Amino acid sequence: MPKNDLYLDKPLMNAAGTLGFALDPKNPLDISHFGAFVTNPISQQERTPAHGRRYQVYPGGFLLHTGLPNPGLSQVFRRYGRQWARSPVPVIVHLLALEPASLARMVERLEGVEGIMGLEIGLPPEVDEAAAADFIRAAVGELPLIVRLPLEQAEHLAEAAVNAGAGAISLGAPRGKLAGMNGRMYGPAVFPLALRAVEKLAGSGIPVIGAGGVYQPQDVEAMLAAGARAVQIDAVLWRGVNAILHSGKS
Questions:
Q1: How many other CB atoms sit within 10 Å of the CB of residue 133?
Q2: Least reliable range by pLDDT among 49-53, 107-111, 152-156, 225-229
Q3: CA 91, 97, 103 angle in degrees (round to 5)?
Q4: Which of 35, 83, 112, 143 minimizes the number of CB atoms within 10 Å of its CB?
Q5: pTM for this structure?
Q6: Residue 98 and residue 117: Cα distance in Å, rounded?
Q7: What are the helix (H) ranges across the chain?
Q8: What is the helix (H) or strand (E) element at residue 198, kind and residue range?
Q9: How big is the chain by its Cα radius of gyration, in Å?
């Protein structure tokens, strides 16, 4: 497999941060319709949860601010590496890009690990083209590479990301603000913006994985019709909804 090519049997996957660091066998979701499982975001060192208000509802969705807590790559691998190797679907490990050198070390450690089909990296907020390219070049290796760009920055950064070595772009939840809280926006109200971004990026020849506000099978179908290579599902999975998965079955 060429290092930047990502092959999925089915065009559905979860978004990072929705289903944990490995598939829970007790989860009632029908995972057989997934082409891949994406882990929670992982940093080289431990991260603790965010302080203050973390959740606030608005019409059409909610803001969420978690701080992306995780025990660090070594602990995650120690606890979940065997589950990745036995996973019923291929695993994509999501890595937090905090600085290029540590990102390169994490990528090197994961190459050759059984069960991992690719990597997804999440870039820092407000990253510019030059910094994004530095992160991506640090992450390019033997595994296919997805770069998750915040929805509001995707059109601006996508071409630079692909030129730096990204095999595909995925869309991250946009950032928003309500009184007393900043966070990422989830919910059906995000979908029209996400679908527009998919259409624009795919129309420019960018390999894009759609995400954002996908809550029903028609949303998945619309993103695929707009040119998405695959679709990531986020907050709707916390409802334990299986119906949406059937739209992506092969």
A1: 19
A2: 49-53
A3: 80
A4: 112
A5: 0.93
A6: 22
A7: 73-85, 100-110, 129-139, 154-164, 191-203, 217-225
A8: helix 191-203
A9: 17
Instruction: Report the amino acid identity of residue 90.
Output: P
User: Which residues neighbour 219 within 8 Å (Cβ) at sequence distance 6 or greater?
Assistant: 191, 195, 213, 231, 244
Residue 93's closest CA among 190, 101, 80?
Answer: 80
* Measured distance CA(228)–CA(133) in Å, rounded: 23
12-248 architecture in CATH? Alpha-Beta Barrel (3.20)
- 97 pLDDT exceeds 80? yes
How confident is the model over 73-85, as pLDDT tens digits?
A: 999 999 999 999 9
Coil, strand or helix: which one is 174?
coil
CA 52, 59, 211, 14 torsion-angle sign: positive
Q: Cα(11)–Cα(247) distance, rounded to whole angstroms?
A: 9
* 208-210 and 230-233 beta bridge pairing: parallel
Range list of H helices, 43-128: 73-85, 100-110
**Domain ranges, ordered by start, for the chain:** 12-248
Looking at 42-46, 138-142, 165-169, 176-180, which range is the least confident one?
A: 176-180
